[in-house]
């Protein structure tokens, strides 16, 4: 077997540039998915029945069909509605729609894990529902959902490779184009693989960081907060 | 619940006794609209709860109006329902900052005073899971008292406690009563009822069967069901 990683090194700048697009795709669609997913999760757990039903149908469809199909669908169906979408916006829309469905369910699991008694206690004190969400539900839900949320973020990052099929020049498509002209598939694919692994490792590390940052009872209050509350004396 | 009508005057302590499932909890929960009565009227200081009457028309209160009314009614639950992501002092402060709009500093000062009053001056920065059941319930009482409510509702506040922790909670409640707080207490602690109550209501099957002074209820109950319940309970 003859391997030549010189090719990979020569094309590394191209691959890294393409990885930039992969990161952009992953971050934008995950951000949209998180925002919309939070709204849908709240609508599903606290909204009126009709809204909850609509959201259920949305999740049912988008979680139940392949993302590859969403990509093709948005890309090819848009012109039917008089829209011509470039590959990149089409990919961002399709991937956002897909990850919104997953995010909704993950965030909902966190919301539902907060005991209803705590919500009653907040109502009894006189908090309105938006306050309860912000002060009581979300701080606890966030901590609960970190592992499943980050798992989904990692799969989602890898799934950006599917955007290659609608010609978005992200990491996977760029790798394919390079090895089809250089015939160095093993070298290029393993380099691309390492780049993916690096990206997902960053997310794994981020997960660890979030888990530590939200382990409130292990850290206790900060010195600054203690001074503000007038409880700096050792207790 | 059927035909329950009771008026509690300022500074009065009304104790509700009766078998499990007799409607004590439901009655308390209707008093702050955690449970919405299908019919009937709840008034606080002459103002109708949950419904607004104007020009002969009546409409249900919106979330904000209802929250405002609830903030004048303190509630203590059987299972405490402290917010586990907040320290003791933050549990007490939450209503002050987020409902009353007090500054963090002022709320902290108020919360420290309330916690000191329930004997927890050394537990300001403890998280609920670091406290015993009796301490948790005392934090919950401080949380309700801090709002300076017009009336305090206690829903079997000692029923979930180990026997050796019951007295510390009852002692705090007795102190609150001595300070002139209007209180409605559902409990199985007959000694407490005898000692602290101004009036005792015996409830059974969703009705107030007998309502009179603790002396009369405990020594010469006029109703056969009351007598039977107390014989069994005090035996």
Question: What key phrases describe this protein's structure?
Answer:
heterodimer; A: 235 residues; mainly alpha; MetI-like fold; 10 helices; flat; B: 235 residues; alpha/beta; 40% helix
Tell me what you see in this structure.
The complex is a heterodimer of chains A (235) and B (235). By secondary structure, chain A is mainly α. Chain A has a single domain, classed as MetI-like (MetI-like fold, Orthogonal Bundle). Chain A has helices at residues 5-46, 49-64, 67-77, 87-113, 116-125, 129-159, 171-182, 185-213, 216-219, 223-229. In chain A, helix 1 (5-46) packs antiparallel against helix 7. The longest helix of chain A is centred in the N-terminal third of the chain and has 42 residues, at 5-46. Chain A is flat, with a radius of gyration of 22 Å. By secondary structure, chain B is of the alpha/beta class. In chain B, 40% of the residues lie in helices and 18% in strands. Chain B contains nine helices and ten strands. In chain B, helix 6 (163-178) links the parallel strand 7 (151-155) and strand 8 (183-186). In chain B, helix 3 packs across helix 4 (104-117) and helix 3 (88-98) packs parallel to helix 5. Chain B is globular and about 55 Å long. The two termini of chain B are 28 Å apart. In chain B, 46% of the residues are buried. The model of chain B has no long low-confidence stretch (mean pLDDT 94). The A-B interface holds A 115, 117-118, 120-129, 131, 135-136, 139-140, 143, 216-217, 220-221, 226, 228-231, 235 and B 32, 34, 63-64, 67-75, 77, 79, 81-85, 87, 89-90, 93-95, 98-99, 104-105, 108-109, 111-112, 122-127, 129-130, 140, 143-144, 147.
């Amino acid at each position: 077997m003859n391997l030549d990683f010189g090719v990979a090194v020569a094309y590394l700048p191209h691959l890294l540039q393409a990885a930039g697009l992969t990161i952009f795709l992953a971050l934008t669609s995950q951000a949209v998915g998180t925002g919309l997913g939070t709204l849908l999760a709240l609508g599903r757990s606290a909204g009126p029945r009709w809204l909850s039903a609509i959201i259920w149908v949305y999740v049912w469809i988008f979680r139940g069909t392949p993302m590859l199909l969403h990509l093709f669908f948005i890309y090819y169906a848009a012109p039917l509605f008089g829209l011509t979408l470039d590959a990149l916006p089409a990919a961002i829309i399709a991937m956002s729609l897909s990850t919104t469905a997953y995010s909704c369910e993950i965030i909902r699991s966190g919301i539902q894990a907060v005991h209803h008694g705590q919500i009653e206690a907040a109502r009894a004190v006189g908090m309105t529902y938006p306050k309860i969400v912000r002060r009581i539900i979300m701080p606890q839900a966030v901590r609960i959902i970190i592992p499943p949320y980050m798992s989904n973020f990692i799969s989602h990052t890898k799934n950006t490779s599917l955007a290659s099929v609608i010609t978005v020049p992200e990491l996977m498509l760029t790798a394919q184009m390079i090895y089809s002209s250089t015939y160095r598939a093993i070298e290029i694919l393993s380099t691309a693989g390492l780049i993916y692994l690096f990206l997902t490792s960053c997310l794994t590390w981020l997960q660890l960081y979030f888990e530590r940052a939200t382990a409130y009872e292990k850290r206790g209050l900060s010195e600054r907060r203690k001074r503000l509350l007038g409880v700096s004396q050792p207790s | 619940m059927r035909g329950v009508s009771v008026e509690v005057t300022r500074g009065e302590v009304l104790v509700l006794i009766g078998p499990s499932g007799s409607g004590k909890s439901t009655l308390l929960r209707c008093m702050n609209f955690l449970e919405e009565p299908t019919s009937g009227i709840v008034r606080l200081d002459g103002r109708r709860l949950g419904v607004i009457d104007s020009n002969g028309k009546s409409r249900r209160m919106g979330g904000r109006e209802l929250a405002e009314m609830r903030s004048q009614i303190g509630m203590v639950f059987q299972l405490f329902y402290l917010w586990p992501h907040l320290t003791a002092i933050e549990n007490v402060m939450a209503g002050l900052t987020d409902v009353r709009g007090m500054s963090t500093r002022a709320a902290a000062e108020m919360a420290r005073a309330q916690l000191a009053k329930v004997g927890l001056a050394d537990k300001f920065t403890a998280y609920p899971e670091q406290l015993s059941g009796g301490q948790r319930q005392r934090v919950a009482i401080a949380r309700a008292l801090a709002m300076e409510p017009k009336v305090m509702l206690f829903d079997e506040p000692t029923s979930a406690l180990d026997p050796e922790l019951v007295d510390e909670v009852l002692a705090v409640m007795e102190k609150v009563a001595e300070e002139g707080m209007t209180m409605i207490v559902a409990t199985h602690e007959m000694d407490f009822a005898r000692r602290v109550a101004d009036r005792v209501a015996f409830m059974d099957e969703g009705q107030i069967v007998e309502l009179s002074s603790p002396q009369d209820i405990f020594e010469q109950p006029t109703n056969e069901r009351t007598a039977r319940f107390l014989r069994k309970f005090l035996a």
